[in-house]
Here is the input.
Amino acid sequence: RATLLLSRCLLKMVKGNIIVPEEILSFCCNGLQGSTSPPRAREPGEREEAPGAMASPLPARNPTEVQMSQLVLPCHTNHRGELSTGQLLKWIDTAACLSAERHAGCPCVTASMDDIYFEHTISVGQVVNIKAKVNRAFNSSMEVGIQVSYEDLCSGKHCSICKAYATFVAQGPLGSKVRLKPLAPQTEEEKIEYSIAAERRRMRLVHKDTLKDLLTHSSQETELETRDGSGAVPAEKTRVESVELVLPPHANHQGNTFGGQIMAWMENVATIAASRLCHAHPTLRAIEMFHFRGPSQVGDRLVLKAIVNNAFKNRWVPVAGAPLPPSPRPSAASSLLSGSMEVGVSAEAYGQEMSVSPRHINSAFMTFVVLDQEGCPRTLPMVAPEPGDGERRYREASARKKIRLDRKYVVSCKQSEVPLSVPWDQSNKVYLSYNNVSALKMLVAKANWALAREKEKVRMYTLEEDKFLSFRIEMSVCITASRAFSLLSNLRRRHEWDSHYVSAELVQEVDDDDMIYHVVSQKLRHENKPQDFVILASRRKPCSKGDPYVVAFRSVTLPTHPARAEFTRGETLCSGFCIWPESEEMSKVAYYNQAMPGYLNYVTTNVAGLSSNICSTFEACEKFLLKNKEDLISRLQDF
Here is the structure.
């Protein structure tokens, strides 16, 4: 009836040459279509709801997230009906590039790719699901995290394939660099990835130096093994050289060759080289971290070269601190380098004139295995390296094998799977430092912290998770963040404010950011001797605005400082300070500790509210910071 009355009024207004306002006309038309109320004005920032959309809002999605699903067809597979790793690398690079360009708003190129470990093969008819999103943007580069899984459409089974991190660089006109806008993480997972991305970036920058240091300090350990040479295959017989012409389908809209396409070509020649050693069909298990040295364009001739650098014995290689496998069959982590071979592969670009010096595009190291019917690595023939350069590659391959084991074990394992005290040496020092800082940053980014106690300016929070009970104690102090960072990162002064510390001896200064201390603490009530710790202290200054100063602690073992009878050897898994500047003169100082059973005896009464020991210790920390701040000011005035 209301609709009929509106129609009659509208008709009279039109006959009387009366101008009908647009709002009334729209309202009448909507009423004729069944609407009984005028359209609601949208709030600022509110999106227009699509027709047929659900009333309940969906959770916010990361604007840089890209999802790709690809059905594996016969044209994507090898002779075994398994997805070619080269094809998978092309899909990974494409998805990651699209994610990077979503954030940058301009073309992006692949700068580097971290280690990739392939856990399973993918068969024809299955679906590859790839999810990529930007974890953090730096000045002109950004880290993109990629997760790859497969889906069996018949059984509904889902399985993880690999996780990768790629670095992309944004490019403006004529290849100029573009300054990227910062990324604001929203979820707990995104905040963790954002925080640790800075530490992964640091690890990439020192990757080459890590190999050099290991070769320098262990030159005697990496000498050629004594072999009779009867079954050794000359490395020269595995050499492969192939050329590819870069055509428009291989390049992006700027004419630069896709990084994934180059990786696919490199994987192809590396597979041929590996096959020439084992006379079988190898399976790619890992790709070493690599960097693209320069771009190639449509029309370039890419010359790809590959050779087997080393083949490793088919035995289980134990990782220090890792439990023995329950059966003779090696575990997934240890079989990576059990009966495996490393293939070195390079890509160089030429123009039309082959006489011109080539441009080095990329070098990579790929690890292959040959699997038997039960999926276990087979024994491989030995490699006889060429004198000179071949022997150098042979030794470097052995060093990279050790680094890969350490990196996969220390970096990739879950926190609960890493022993409390991992042996420290030259090969894993970078990755122990990474694990130390990233573990603390992950703890900082956790949600669901509960306020347990508040005493004046000191607040104590707890977090119960799995078998860990974590603590956070924080307060605001009138001191600059940089000065607090300098004072709290020096464990030799810890006894000045923490009564539980008796002494801290600097055992080894690894570099400017990492120190190893031997710490002696007070006796516990139920013990008749003091505790001692061997602690790696890793310090980091902010990577960008908004980041805290970080001082992270974790236990390590050193041959020079074994457990002794006069002490009870203690261990700490994750603890440390985070310091945020609140103003020019104020800082928020927070201490975190992921408590282990030995530490719980000390803090139990504090959690119950029966003692103020922890709060008193932190108040003493504030007095220590203020006292030394004043001492610094007076020294500057005297100067």
